[in-house]
Prior knowledge:
By secondary structure, the chain is α/β, with parallel strands linked by helices. The chain has helices at about 1-15, 25-35, 40-50, 115-125, 160-170, 180-185, 235-240, 250-260, 280-285, 305-320, and strands at about 55, 70-75, 80-85, 90-95, 100-110, 130-140, 140-145, 145-150, 170-175, 195-200, 200-210, 210-215, 265-270, 295-300.
Amino acid sequence: MAFSSMVKDINRKIILESFWDFSRNTKQDITKKTELSFPTVSKLVDELNEQDIIHMLSDKRGETGGRKANEYILNQEYAYSLCLKVEREYIEVFIVDLYKQNISYDKIEEKAISAEKILKVIETKILNNKIKSIVVGIPGFIHDGIIGMADGIEALNGCNLKTEIFQKFNIETEVANNMNILVSGFQKELGDISCIHIGKNGPGSSYIVNGKPVSGAFGFQGEVGFNFYDEHRTFREIALEGYQNIDMIEYIGRLLLQIITVINPYKLYLYPLTDINIEELQNYCLRYVPQEAMPQIILKKTYDKDYQYSLLSRGIHLLQAII
């Protein structure tokens, strides 16, 4: 019985994959896509329809007047994801449906963010019982939901936020570093890539190698701000001093050189704090590395938009894993 149940669950997941692209499917369509038997598909599709996970569209007739096979489509309102973007002095809150469409948005100004206040925000939003997943993005060093250090949010340091959220609300939860979330939006790109964000509290980076985000043994990967800029200061310390009297070409150039020599990405997406001359930055790096090793540097000014896109995508992926 246990084996039969496992096989049924696997087949159910396979059938659901036919709907994640939001397409309309007949039972025959799904049989062709999945190569499962028609009786298996028919039974599981009927069950998914009864569970309201998918909807049967109204009957349609062919051009000759004969009845067409029923079409089914994903019920985008079956489940929602609650996504939180936690920053030093505010929390942005998104609720999205299975089509990644915003159901609601809120920005909560808060100068003393803590785990208790994050839990309170979640509590006010999960009155909607359709919320089945929670994703929290936080700038800092995070491993398995435990926050080793949150940039500018000291009250979160050492907090096992993932466990606290799950124990309180019994909802599948992910707590992750902001840059690791952001880079996941680039997974479909070919070649190894790196994303670098120059923020007010210091630089952060993330990487995709061999098509997968690099997580590291303890979640500390990408914390390049702790590297030394010179013999006296780290990149992070310079940022916390407001980048005073710093040549940003040299600052970012030194940072890129470390990443180029360790990861040597094919593309490097740079989210700077201020406008940067890419040609000057490339010429700085070429003083130390050969042209053949130089990645394509792409300047981006859409950090918030890209981060939000990836954050909401993580919420949907978590939903897909548990439905």
